[in-house]
């Protein structure tokens, strides 16, 4: 008789044969910096997550570095928004300021990443610029992304997270970075691209929209993927790899573990997954009601994402979880 229970008999045996292990370096912490904020303010739909001031952002980055996590992913919440999102590539725009602050606080101890998308900076809330019929203009948006990429790289971001789901965005940004003269003519060949390859139009972004004070009226279904489509996630990933993505990502994570496993099998570059705001909020809400064990649920959810194939996991619990892992 085969007895699999033999290897489950003691904590030491279970630890010895564990197939998946989380490490603080696997984790990336998303952070929000809000223009003009004078004190950190909690986002009501994301208990424990705040809008940072410049000072509190620096402190959060230092704390993350001390916890030993792999990186931070920055989002900016500007005061003024306009049709083309000019705050996004303004060197003094809130996100680019945040990148400089984070890079200084990190002192090379973790990787500073920035969200490269227009939705926080446009007054209509879409991830791109609009054409005359109100649709999102793919190729005009690419030009904005290139300009944004150069601004973020100039500010000191090491990895750019392309989350807009425009066709050809990885190739356009790669070429724009390489050919930029902003870096004393040397280009930004060493700035890496983390492509949100399989990004789905998800209800689980709900709390994030509050976090970035989104003005979107409508949805993103003409550019983000249909949650029904698994094969298409692989197709988007292949395109991003061909265009030169350095890291590919699946988002959200927990409802898309099949897509994540497919991508991990296909990719010859590191694979990331984003445990998004709604996934965070669900567990926090259930735990606050005493319906689940908070720490166990957090650990299990992140472990499951790693087991499915993620090398890198973006999670709002990154710093806290790293503390438990040490
Ligand atoms: C786009 C972006 C979004 C998220 C990350 N980048 C929102 C969206 O696509 O609507 C969601 C992250 C989360 O829900 O935690 N800039």
From TrEMBL:
Gene Ontology terms, MF aspect: porphobilinogen synthase activity; zinc ion binding
Sequence positions that bind 5-aminolevulinate 1: 209, 220
SUPFAM superfamilies noted in UniProt: Aldolase
Catalytic reaction(s) noted: 2 5-aminolevulinate = porphobilinogen + 2 H2O + H(+)
A GO CC term attached to the entry: cytosol
EC assignment: 4.2.1.24
SMART domains tied to this protein: ALAD (SM01004)
Gene3D superfamilies, per the entry: Aldolase class I
A Pfam family assignment: ALAD
Binding site for 5-aminolevulinate 2: 277, 316
This protein's record includes keyword Transmembrane helix: no
Pathway(s) annotated for this protein in UniProt: Porphyrin-containing compound metabolism; protoporphyrin-IX biosynthesis; coproporphyrinogen-III from 5-aminolevulinate: step 1/4
Keyword 4Fe-4S: no
Function: Catalyzes an early step in the biosynthesis of tetrapyrroles. Binds two molecules of 5-aminolevulinate per subunit, each at a distinct site, and catalyzes their condensation to form porphobilinogen.
Family: Belongs to the ALAD family.
Subunit description: Homooctamer.
PANTHER family: DELTA-AMINOLEVULINIC ACID DEHYDRATASE (PTHR11458:SF0)
Name of this chain's protein: Delta-aminolevulinic acid dehydratase
Organism of origin: Sanguibacter gelidistatuariae
